[in-house]
Structure formats: structure tokens, C-alpha cells
User: Fold this.
Amino acid sequence: MLRTQLLPDFSIERDDSRCIRCQVCVRQCGFDVHRYDEDRDIILSDESKCAGCQRCAVLCPTSALTISPNRSSYAANSNWTRERISDLKRQAESGGVLLTGCGNDKGYPVYWDHLVLNASQVTNPSIDPLREPMELRTYLGRKPRKVEIANAEECQRDPLIKIETPLVFSALSYGAISAQAQESLARAAKQCGTLFNSGEGGLPRRLRKFKDNVIVQCASGRFGVEPEYLSNSAMIEIKIGQGAKPGIGGHLPGEKVSKKISSTRKIPLGTDALSPAPQHDIYSIEDLRTLIFALKEATNYEKPISVKIAAVHNAPAIASGIVRAGADVVAIDGLRGGTGAAPKAIRDNVGIPIEMALASVDKRLRDERIRNECSIMAAGGFRCSADVVKAIALGADAVYLGTAALVAMGCTLCQKCYTGICNWGICTTDPYLSKRVNPDVASQRLISLLQAWSLEIKEMLGGMGINAVESLRGNRDQLRAVRLSDWELDVLGVRGAGR
Amino acid sequence: MLDLEAMNNPFGDSKVVSNCSIFGMMEMSGQPVEGGSVVEAISNMKERSNGLGAGFAVYGCYPEHQDDYALHVMYDSEEGKELTESRLSQTFEIVGKGEIPTEPNGTMGPAPLLWRYFLVPRNCTTDESALVADEVSRINDGIKDAFVFSAAKNMGVFKGIGYPRDLAEFYRLREYRGYIWLAHGRFPTNTMAWWGGAHPFSMLDWTVVHNGEISSYGTNRRFVETYGYRCSFLTDTEVVAYAIDLLVRVHGLPLELAAQVLAPPLWDQIDVMDPGRAALYRSLRSTYAGLLLNGPFSVIVAREGEMVGLTDRIRLRPLTAGIAGDRLYLSSEEAPLRLVDDDLTRVWSPQGGVPIVGRLGEGVSYDYP
Assistant:
């Protein structure tokens, strides 16, 4: 094999005065970067294999390792950047589609960073969440247009799902992530009174006890979809699209389809798990309606049905169709949404930012007077509690957290999820690697994350003089924009700061 | 309508803000009474207003026309008056018409032309009140220089620029009797003083006086808009009026439950209710989530035969209730009650979120429904 022309992405510096040859780095690296040479009693490192995940640096007991971006560079060029040149060389060597993991890392505008929040001064008081009640509870699902008091229970025919905080874990499927990681999400969701999403890989029998806290997905591969799967859930989500790869299906390579995954996904051992790009029984909105009601029939109308789409150009019209087709929840996944594997060209170029999609969908549903007939969930790169508050002010009922939850468990966004090797034990099914996620520890880290964000959301609500999250929903008066042009203000429905 | 944008929201703010004093008196026997004590009471809270708006609503003030719709209209020109009258005569028989009697006292600025009409709908086969509401919005939206500021049976709103006592004298309120009197002194911070922008705000026979600044305004406005209301004043008071109209007139909720939508119990309180009641409250709160009025407010709402007072659920704005015989008082402060009535048997500060409802012939209810 010819030697690769690629420059390594990372440099590895080992402080030999600190290294005690304990070989933790050797054992921790699933990419086999480090190797102990017994004869010379030194540890050698192959930088070309390094993903920059920082596992070795964090676990090194003497902090002997520094992993940093490789300083070698090509001649400076604004068009032909190092990333472009590397990608070209990689393709020239492989002839294939470039794969990647995690969310879009390009410098598209992050509109959250152009929106600022309001706070109360003088004419109305702010509220201290440490002294006063502050409510984050939200009910997801379809509400009636009016309440008939004579028969209130009858008039709320459609099931509603209670969440105690507007933070829900995004779809992360078993197979893409390890059993331990999925169990950690389940336990944290239960503890915090919220939901996790099974993703499209089915739900291991072991996790059926979390049925009140799971959104089960029905995606194009229909993996693991059977009556018990559907009925052991809080909600069912039809996955049409994913923000990281709109219009693209999925592919779990056969090598990852172990015995457990095969039995959970209901596919033969060792076969590729292929999720077609479209659902082959949904080629139109009326087909979607058929599936929505098939799922409702199958579960005795006891489960809200969510339909998840990637944020694309005509998201408002699609969302309107979804609500009219009978869905109870519309989930929208934006341009920066994560993935376990996607073609790099798709991840980096297809879709629109969640802020724009959310604002325009919320507005369209209001204009059509059907906003109250569904809940909106927003997904795609929520980094902090302030992003969540801004999303709710733009119209979201709740927010899906994927990447943030992974980072809480250990992920460092090295983007190598598609390799099946994850030194943090999250995005892998390798038993040696995956046992690195201890559900006792990881679930506690997730609980802490939800708790911290919930507290921060309460602080921001209180500052605005609001003590229930529903009073922020769609309350764009609480937002102002900085450094945005007129069309952006128009789409977001937000005034410029000072106006 | 008069140019709302320029008059009401001259600075183009996202919302028109004001704070105020509010006062309500109801004679629950239905016996019409003079409003002198109401004028005294609201004037006692002069510091809560700044002279940029005040007004009164009087229920039962036109007994001789009790079956006719009384329209109070302000005009900026004779032309506006002519257009309005020709419009009105197409839909209604005008059974009474005249200038609203006034007595300019020199302390106030120029007033618009103020006229009132007593109307009987011609050939109305459908809902009479919907017809009247329609006609009012047609005049207010379509005729420049005309603004209808009250349109209901046996009820009138009297409002304008000045302090409450100025307006009471100007409109010669000592000549009226009513069984419900609402009064308002306004402290606006970002609106030009114009007569139509003063309160009480009225819609059909609803009138609302309100003190507060609702932080959920954006959510509330968008919610009522999805039910077909159009918010043109951009005030909290307007959105409260539409919310109550939607809940009570359109959706048929009793006032007490409507109040529980505007200022609902906490989820923790709902969770421990008996199952039937919890289901009702859960339904109300999740269905009408967009109508929760969040932030400080106290409000008095009246319609024929009913008056209700309510503060936000954590009671960030004051409201005092008082009872003297058949008489129910609601007030921003306690002092005015003590000033005008020596026979009070009970005076109290209602809990946040608990509506105080006075009903003709039934008395007061002041507990969670």
C-alpha cells in the first residue's frame, strides 16, 4: 500500500520526565495510536491515527500527554484550506464518499448568538426562583381547541405526556451508541421526569421498564418495531428525517450487528442494518396520515405520535401538513444536528438552521390557527440553557438534546463515531470500549446536566418576570436581535435591540 | 378609527405599557346608586395615575333605554360623525341620539366631539351581540376620525385625558346611577395621551380595568390571535378583555374558571386535587397555556350582573376587597374603602389567583371554584 499523503490532524507530545510507562494510553486508545516498545522501554505514538479525542491525555495519571492540532501546514490559501486539501487527498486515496460523525462543524451563523433576552426592571418585578415557585412542567401532545367543562376528561381525548423540564434526550439508537450509554440516558430521563428517545434501533428488553420515559422511533428500517415495542412507550416518533443528513438514510455495518443488536433490531446476526432514505410506505402526506393512524390504532390511541423532520427549505408547509395529517408533535432537527455517521458533503451542506425553521414553523402554524393542536420540539445543536430559553421564546414546547448529552457522558466531538471506535465508550458496540461508560456514573452526569440547565432556565424566566415556562412559549417579545439583517429579523419575528 | 398607530403607540414600541389605580363597586341587590363615593375613592389614589387618562364604566345607567344598545362615540371631525351615523342607520334603528352631556371645567385639554346613540338592530336574525361587535369594529377600523368606546345595553363608559376627578366632573357623572361602577386612573409610560386610549377598555358589555405589566404579553397576544382576535391597542388590558371574551362568551366557561385560566393554581396544587377536579384543571391549564397571565397584574372585570377581581397567582400587584351589606368593593388600596364607607363588615387582601366574584342577587364568592 502506498504511503498516505495526508498530514496528521494532531500532534502528540509526551513529557518523558513525567511518563511512568504505565501504558494507560496504550490500553485506552482504540485507534492503536500508542505502542509500548519493551526493548527500549519507551512508548511510541503514531500521530496519523490520532482522532484527538483526548482520552489518553485525560486518563494519563501524570498528565504527561498533550494532544494538539498538528502545526504543519500547507501554503496559506483562503480557498484551498487544509481541510479541503486533506479531503481531496483522502478521496483520491479511497475513491469513496467521505464519512463523518457529530453535527455540522462549519461556520454557519448560530442565531442563538445573535439573540439576547429581556429582563424586568421597575414596571414589573423579576422573580427569584429560590423564593418563589417556578414551573417548567410541560405537556406534550395535541390539545383541544376548547375545554368543555361539563366533560373535561372527554374533551382532552388525545393523550398528553408530562415532562417536568422542557429538555428531552434526542434519538440515539442502540447500535449507534452502546447499551450502557442508552441505559444511562434512560435512567437520567426517569430520574428527571423527562423522556429519552430510543432512536431507530429498537429498545433492548432490559430497558422496557423505562416505558413511561421513552419515545420509541419508527424509522424507515422499522428495526425492532413490533406491538410490544410500540405499547411500551410514552410516545411514538415517526422519523422522516435527521438534521445532520436530510434526505439520506442510514447504514449500520454488519460487523456492529452483534447478537444483542440483532435481537433488538430483529435482523439476522452480522447483516448490515440499512435504513432507506425515505420510508417506503410514505411517498406523500396522505401516506404519512395512514402510518400515523396505523400506529394510533396499534396502540389504542393511547400514545401521542410525533413526526420528526429535518429542517429544510419548506419546513413550514411540511409541518402544517404533518399536523393536519394527525400528528400530535412535530419535531424539527436543524442544520447543526448530530449523527453517528453521515456523508460529510451532506452533513455540511444540506438543511437550514433550526432557529429559522422553528420560527417559521411556529408562525405558520399560528397563522393557520393550528398551533395549539400540536407541540413543537426543536433539535439540532443546543449548547446551553440560554439556547433552550431562546428556542422556547421562538415557539418550541421542548428541546431535544443529543450532542450535549453525549458530551456530558464523555464525548469530545472527535467526529469519529462512524468508525465504530469510541474511546469514551459511547458510540461503539465493542464490549471492551463500551464498558467504559458506567451507567451509575454517566446517568448521574446527565442528571446533573439537566438539573443545571433547569436551574439556569428558571433564573432566566424569573429575570423576565415569568414563573411558568408556557408563558415564554412563542413570546418573541422577550427576544431582541443583534447584528442581523432585515430578512433575518423578519423570519425570526424579532425586533432589533433598542427597538 | 383615529390613527391608532400614531396616537396609541407613537414610539413604535412592541407594547404599550401603563400602570394605575383601579376601583370597583357593585351593589349586589341591583339597586342603582350614585357614584360620588367611587369618584372620591379613585381620587384618593391620585398618586397612582399621572393625568394621562382616567375613566369610569357604569352598569345600569340607562334604565329608560335598557333594551337598546347604547353607543358612546368620539369624533375628531364632523365628517367622521356623518359617515358613522349613515353607517349606523343602515343596520340599526336609531331610537335616541344626542351629545353626551359634558361640563368643561378648564383644567383639561380639548376634548373630541362626544356623542351617544341608542340603537335597535334591524332585521337581526343571528346573534345580536356579534352583529354589534362587527359594526363597532367596522366603524373603528374603517372610519377615520371616529372611535366607538362603548357599545352595550344599559351600560356606558366615560373616559378621557385627565385625572379621575376631572373626568367625573367633565362627564357630569353625579347625574348617573348604576349598580356597578368601575373606575380607573392611568399612569402610562410610552403612549401619547389620547381619549380613546384611556381606560376602562370595553368590548360589548365587558369592561376591564387593569393594573400591571404582563410579562407573558407576547404569548397571550399570539394565542388570542389564533382565535381570530386582532390586538390593535397593544395593551395588556386589551388582551385580558379578549381572553375573557374567548373563555366566557365564546367557550362558555363561568367567570370563576376563566379566572383560573388567567391565574391558574401551581401544578403541585393541581396534582393533589381530587382526580376529577385535577383533570379539569389540567385540561384548562394545558389547553389554555397561552392565556396564563404571567407577571404582575390586578384586574377588575365587569359585565351585566357580574363583577370579578383577580390578582396574579403570586400576587405581585395589590387588590383589596371589602364588603358592606350588599355592596362589594374592589380597590388597588385599602384606604379609599375606609374613606368612603363606614359600614364595612369585612376588608381583606384576596390571595393571588383567587377570584372575588360579585353576582347580582347572589352575593360574593371568594374561594377556589
